[in-house]
Each structure stands twice: as C-alpha cells, then as structure tokens.
Automatic annotation (TrEMBL):
Start and end residues of each DUF1989 domain: 52-232
PANTHER family: RE64534P
InterPro entries: DUF1989 (IPR018959)
Source species, domain of life: Bacteria
Listed name of the protein: DUF1989 domain-containing protein
Pfam family membership, one: DUF1989
Amino acid sequence: MHPTPEHAAPEDAEARRDIAPVICYPTDALPAPDLSAYRAARESWEKIADLRVPPREALAFDVPAGHFFRITSVEGPQVGDLNLFSADLSERFYSGKTRALHGTHLSRGDRMWSGFPTMRPLATITEDTLDWYGIDAFGGSVHDVIGTRCDPYTHCLLSDGGQYHHCCHSNLTRALAEARDLPLRETEALVHDVLNVFMCTGFTRDTGQYFMKASPVRPGDYLEFFAESDLLGVLSACPGGDCSSEHSSDTAACYPLGVEIYRPKSAPEGWAPPAPNAYDRSHGL
C-alpha cells in the first residue's frame, strides 16, 4: 500500500510518471509450445484416473511424463491451489519466474517452470475453458500466479491468534506428507507458491492491493496440462470456495474438484522431455 505522501512532488513529476514501461523479460526467443501437436495427441488418449479432491482438503496425484491431466469443476464454483513437483521432489514449480515470463495469470500455451538450477517446463497448459474471461473492468483475471496460498500463519496473525488447519498451505502439507511418507515439518518446507486454478484476482488500481472476486468457473469447466516430465501434483480445494468473500473459512460454500489423467496412444509429434537449463553454473568464478 502507498502511504499518503509527505513530500511535495518535484516540478518534473508528471514527466517521470509518463516514461513508458519496458517489458523485463521479452519472450520472443522463448520456444513456443506446438499446441497443434499436443491437441493431435489427445485424439487417441485414454482416461486412466478420475479423482476427487474433497472440499477444504488436498489430494496428491502422480502424472507420468507425456500424459495429460485436467483440473475440473464438478459440482459448483470452487478454486484450487496447485503445487507441482518432479516425481522425485528434486524440482518444484517456480511461480515467480513463471509470472515474470508469462504474466500474472496463466492460460493456454503458458508453461509452469521449475526453479533453479534446472529452470525448465514442468507442465504446459494445453486447454482453458475460461479463456473467454480475459481481463475484466477491475483488472481481474483467472488462474493467477500472484497469490501465495492461504495459510495458517497469516490467519493467526490477522485473527488475533486463531488456529485454522484447513488453509491450503496446511492441506498441501498433509497431502504431500502422506503421498511421500515424509515427516510433517520436513514436508512443510517443500510446499511452495501455487497456481491459483480458477481463482479470479488482480491488484486494486488505487492501493495496489491483491484482491479476489467470485470465480467465473462453473461445473464442466477445466484447465488442462501436459506433463513435460514425471510429476507429482498436489491440489487443495480452497476453504474459500469461489473466493467471493473470504479465505480460511468453515462457512463459505465449498465443492470438490476433479483431477482427470489421460494417457495418449503416442507422444505429441516432435516432443521430448525438456533438458535442464543450459547455464554452466560457474557464476563468474
């Protein structure tokens, strides 16, 4: 938030404000995914799993490289917080760099990148039934990589010590610990910033604060991904429901989310698992 100014603006204040911005990371040289090849591979696929994430809980699921998975709305408007790992947990989704490359909200053709030093695509978004939403009059859009995940620590801070255990951070921690048989505190350190699936968010124009509003998702909508490597996904059905009013709540209407996993008959034409980033890691020494 910007405080009320205490210092007078200089004479050239407007000239400074009027300087045009420059994109930090131009992506012209970034190889674009061949969506036509991904779509062709879907034509002969077979559904191999159809899972349900219970409301206010999380579920872990494995997706082999070269497979597709969909996160689906099945009963009512509901948002989900997604963590992605390599199957051996050595790589994690890097939301900050993904945001820097693709923008604050993801859709078809964008990729979910892993952190350093591998920095390669973990998954590619191949379909998005909410792509019609675009950016609304408030600056809001869907599927953001700006929110971190609702968590019990912030809840405790803002509710004068309140203890709530079904925040997405805790949901993800429990589900990951169970999936890989890990101690809870070791697991918590692996949970990371998320892709907020179906969530409608933005920043207020006056104060720059992160906002949420009712998700436009409805039963039948889905966000579809292609696994670029062997993945472990962990998805939380957020206790905020459609996030139209509050987070971390036992009163918001919440619904399950679906996870469908598909095996194509053959890999997309020309596809190969992405290699780790080619930087030599010498760091100038």
